[in-house]
Amino acid sequence: MDAQARPTIAPAPQRQARGTAGLGLGLLAIVVFALTLPMTRLAVGTPQAPQMSGAFIALGRAAVAAVLSAVFLLATRARRPQGGEWWGLAVTAAGVVFGFPLLTSIALRHVEAVHASVIVGVLPLATAAVGAFLHGQRPSAGFWLCAAAGSALVVVYALWHGDGDFALAPADVLLLGAMACAAIGYGWGARLSQQMRAEHVICWALVLSFPLTLPLALLTRPQAALPASAWWGFGYVAVFSMWLGFFAWYRALALGGTVRVSQVQLLQPFLSMLFAVPLLGEHLDAATVAFGAAVIATVAIGKRMPVRTHA
To answer: Which residue spans traverse the membrane (predicted)?
Structure first.
């Protein structure tokens, strides 16, 4: 058989190693991202004790991360994006630089981080759907069933754990919109990570956004003195949530596949809740723990379901 006619398919052990590395990096990124909602709540405050505006938190964190990104791109001698990569970066930026941070920051003034965390449970299904569309991945029916079951669990919990009327509040609608933005940004960022270094994807998206984020951040900056805790929260979301976390996340999606690695996100709501208890003094009840155990079970089962790709 002609050597040129043989398909270049990675050996099974190599594919398995990449998948394992992707899941490990994905878990690391989710731990970083799990602190985003509690830290944002710390920075934005409550209706009774407001701190920074949601607009400043979203735009300011992107502007700070853009400066760090520019230094990193120069230090690593990153190549400039080419052709259609600019469009992909614009879509990525719309999702994870503008959409998700802005909507969550506004919403978190009005809901506790524990409540907002459960809404994040719909993100794995949304990310998997975007990934399947963009990357030609074909999850099995069993995989989709596990993803849908986990997402349904957290949505039911969010509705039941609200005001008791089984209706979504305006803040919940904003959070669901944020999940859609994040899924699109994750999917397109993962696609770009197949063409350039994963760390460079978020850096270029942030630098591309800088001409907008910097002036808007300056316009919405706090006009009064704020407690150190608010600035600590802002600092975390600027350096870790908006920048370093994506280094691990986009690398994870590139190694393990968007559809499969996205299911690690099912752990994020409950990690966020655990962080919110000591950081914000919020309450974690038995029902939340029960729902958390059920969702984690869907992750364990879903990881074993086949995910096919186009040849």
So the answer is: 21-40, 52-74, 86-108, 114-134, 141-160, 166-189, 201-219, 231-250
Burial 140-174 (b: 16+ CB within 10 A, else e): eeebbebbebbbebbbebbbeebeeeeebbebbeb
Give the total number of structural domains in the chain.
1
118, part of any domain = yes
Amino acid identity, position 229: S
Considering the domain boundaries, does residue 13 fall inside one?
no
CB-CB contact of 217 with 60 (8 Å): yes
Angle made by CA atoms 277, 281, 287, in degrees to the nearest 5: 50
Q: What is the pTM of this model?
A: 0.85
Let me know if residue 15 belongs to a domain: no
pLDDT in tens, 274-295: 899 999 999 888 877 787 778 7
Tokens (6 digits) for 2: 């002609």
Nearest to 134 by CA among 174, 191, 50, 173: 191
Phi, psi angles (nearest 5°) of residue 179: -65, -40
